[in-house]
Design goal:
- With 229 residues, the protein is α/β, with parallel strands linked by helices.
- It has two domains: 1-17 and 65-106 and 152-229, Rossmann fold (3-Layer(aba) Sandwich), CATH 3.40.50.1220; 19-62 and 108-145, SIR2/SIRT2 'Small Domain', CATH 3.30.1600.10.
- The protein is 31% helix and 19% strand.
- It has eight helices and nine strands.
- The strands form two sheets. Strands 3-2-1-7-8-9 form a six-stranded parallel beta sheet, sandwiched between helices.
- The chain is globular, with a radius of gyration of 18 Å.
């Protein structure tokens, strides 16, 4: 039974209306990432950061999972081997598409985190700097997302799965954000076959054994159907 590790990025959710970093007129372009996606930015202006993530949370709640999310959920259900689904995305479209185990290495929009004590809870629709932590009461509430300069979640577990994988598949990623951009080399070094599914070749495309290019809602269901055939 083959062990499959799948990494998904913004490209898997783009067709659901959630923009990628590189969208010309996406939400990201209206803000400086240094202001809204770094610990330093949060320290300078927590209200601005909360406004940004409140908008992202609302955007996410208005989106629906697409055929790529549903196909990956089907693969998890029907594949006889282990399928580990790791995502760089902070949306919950994989879960709403039917996946029951998703490893969010960059955190999740629907989570809140206390910067003072580390307590976690479900994020309300609107968050503000004055919100008290349910655990310690400190007004230190932040989104439970990984910002630039912070360590992604679950890295030890992810590397263990990569080193035991028979197949590594990267879907909808730009291939330029580490440590995720290095996953293909870890998996290949451990003997796994590697495949890229992306709208266009990523920056790390030459590192993969094979690739398919096109919209995620087309190429991901096609690939899943072939694997399960």
């Amino acid at each position: 039974m083959a062990s499959v590790v799948i990494l998904t990025g913004a490209g898997v959710s783009a067709e659901s209306g959630l923009g990628t970093f590189r969208d010309v007129d996406g939400l990201w372009t209206k803000y400086d990432l240094n202001d809204v996606a770094t610990p330093e930015g949060f320290a300078r202006d927590p209200a601005l950061v909360h406004d940004f993530y409140n908008a992202r949370r609302a955007n996410c709640r208005g989106a629906a999972p697409n055929a790529a999310h549903r196909a990956l959920a089907r693969l998890q259900r029907e594949h006889p081997g282990r399928v580990t689904l790791v995502t760089q995305n902070v949306d919950d479209l994989h879960e709403r598409g039917g996946s029951d185990e998703v490893w969010h290495m960059h955190g999740a929009l629907n989570g809140a985190l206390c910067a003072a004590c580390g307590h976690r809870w479900d994020a309300p629709e609107q968050m503000a700097p004055s919100d008290p932590c349910p655990g310690c009461g400190a007004p230190a509430t932040r989104p439970d997302v990984v910002w630039f300069g912070e360590m992604p979640y679950l890295m030890d577990e992810i590397y263990a799965r990569l080193e035991a994988a028979d197949l590594f598949v990267s879907i909808g990623t730009s291939g330029n954000v580490y440590p995720a951009a290095g996953f293909v080399q870890v998996a290949a070094g451990a003997g796994a076959q590697t495949l890229e599914l992306n709208l266009e070749p990523s920056e790390g495309a030459s590192l993969f054994d094979a690739a398919r290019h096109g919209p995620a809602t087309e190429i991901v269901p096609q690939w899943v159907a072939e694997v399960l055939a």
